[in-house]
Amino acid sequence: MAIRGIHNSRDHMTVEEFKEWLKQFDTDGDGKISRNELREALRRRGGWFTTMRSGRALRQADKDNSGFVDETEVENLIAFAKKDLGMKITAW
């Protein structure tokens, strides 16, 4: 069953697992996640309204307004994923 539009067979993942999962969507290999890459990540995870959600996630996480989530902003994205997407991400 979906939890706030996101579902997966795994109950939770660690912060490191989340970062590794996210890296697979960095299609251009620049080390940053764009809105389109984030939308694809949410879509593959079974999310609903992925265009809207990826835009909201990017606005929340992208503190330097570069249009991308970089390594220094991943913690902001994790906070969004936990609070707004219902994902369970733990330190270990």
From TrEMBL:
EF-hand domain sequence ranges: 13-48, 49-84
Organism listed in the record: Eleusine coracana subsp. coracana
Keyword set includes Transmembrane helix: no
Protein name as catalogued: EF-hand domain-containing protein
Keywords for this protein: Calcium
Signal peptide stretch: none
Classification via InterPro entries: EF-hand-dom_pair (IPR011992), EF_Hand_1_Ca_BS (IPR018247), EF_hand_dom (IPR002048)
GO molecular function, one term: calcium ion binding
Xref: PROSITE patterns: EF_HAND_1, EF_HAND_2
SUPFAM superfamilies according to UniProt: EF-hand
Keyword Zinc in annotation: no
Matching Gene3D superfamilies: EF-hand
Pfam families: EF-hand_5, EF-hand_6
